[in-house]
Amino acid sequence: MKLNLPNQLAEADVFVQNPFVIFEFHNFMDDSDYDTLVNEMKSFNEYDSIDPRGMEYGMGGKMAISYNRSNLEQIKLPQFKKLVTELTSRSFFEWFKKTHFPYIKKRHPISILVSKPRNIIIRIVRRISRILHLPLGFYYMEVQTSVIKKGDSIPPHTDEAKKRLSLILYLSERELPEKIRTNWGTIFYGLKDGGQEWRETKKANNPSSYNETYLTNKNETTEFLNNYEQIYVAKFRPNVCAGFIKNDISWHSVDEIKFGDDRKVLVINVREEW
């Protein structure tokens, strides 16, 4: 499967650099491959976790399951398996390093790609590198299927400290009303003029990583929106892959799903362990 990836991140169809890097790749893959994938994923219904953040709002959470190089054999759908194989390959990792590293300020200088970060050998090497203060970062890629059901939402958050990149591939029908494309989109936020920056909620346990911040209730969301405003909405369009580079202020959310059925996407994450 061939992915249509730019040679430089600034060549993306949409590229926003401030207050943090946001981008969109249009025609992420050949249309025939994309349509096959969307039709195939209609039958996918295997999830092993629920993101609790929506539940704290009195709503259901995001349902998800993740795949990486270590569990490819569990994927039964052929087109989906091809995509996960490509997105967790060394060639994709090398593309990520070339195009994204210039924008990632906090990272370890030496990058090592691993298929499973909790492998016992990797754990030993990581522990030795920490003891000896070696500048090693252990990277792994995963593809997560994610579903948000009607009536649910994901409140503003900056993402986990270990994330370096998130790509969101929308699994969209060709014909969708514009109100659904907007409602199901990913919202990105920036500080208003005169607004106060939100306090971090979880400091990273490594100086070479960003903090992890998230809102936990509706009162916090009201306070947040008094200080932050929408700077971009990546609408739910077919064959579009929206993404951002995680940092301390990479605020984003998904509004309550008000129209249509379930919002289904694939999330491609690159994480750094230390």
List the SSEs and their pairings.
Layout: E1 14-16, E2 22-26, H1 31-41, E3 49-50, E4 63-67, H2 78-87, H3 90-100, E5 110-113, H4 120-131, E6 136-148, E7 154-157, E8 163-170, H5 178-183, E9 186-191, H6 218-227, E10 228-234, E11 240-245, E12 252-254, E13 263-273
Parallel strand pairs: 5-6
Antiparallel strand pairs: 1-2, 2-11, 3-4, 4-6, 6-13, 7-12, 8-11, 8-13, 9-10, 9-12
What is the straight-line distance between the termini? 32 Å
Q: Into which percentage range does the β-strand content fall?
A: 25-35%
Which shape, going by the Cα principal axes?
globular
Radius of gyration: 18 Å
Q: Helix/strand-derived class? A: alpha+beta
CATH topology: Jelly Rolls
Biggest sheet, open or closed, and with what strands and sense?
A: 9 strands, mixed
What do the pLDDT scores average to? 87
Beta strand count:
13
Walkthrough of the structure:
The structure is a single chain. With 274 residues, the chain is α+β, with helices and mostly antiparallel strands. The protein has a single domain (20-257), classed as Sandwich (Jelly Rolls), CATH 2.60.120.620. The protein has helices spanning 31-41, 78-87, 90-100, 120-131, 178-183, 218-227, and strands at residues 14-16, 22-26, 49-50, 63-67, 110-113, 136-148, 154-157, 163-170, 186-191, 228-234, 240-245, 252-254, 263-273. Strands 1, 2, 3, 4, 5, 6, 8, 11 and 13 form a nine-stranded mixed β-sheet that branches. The two termini are 32 Å apart. Mean pLDDT is 87; it is low at 52-60.
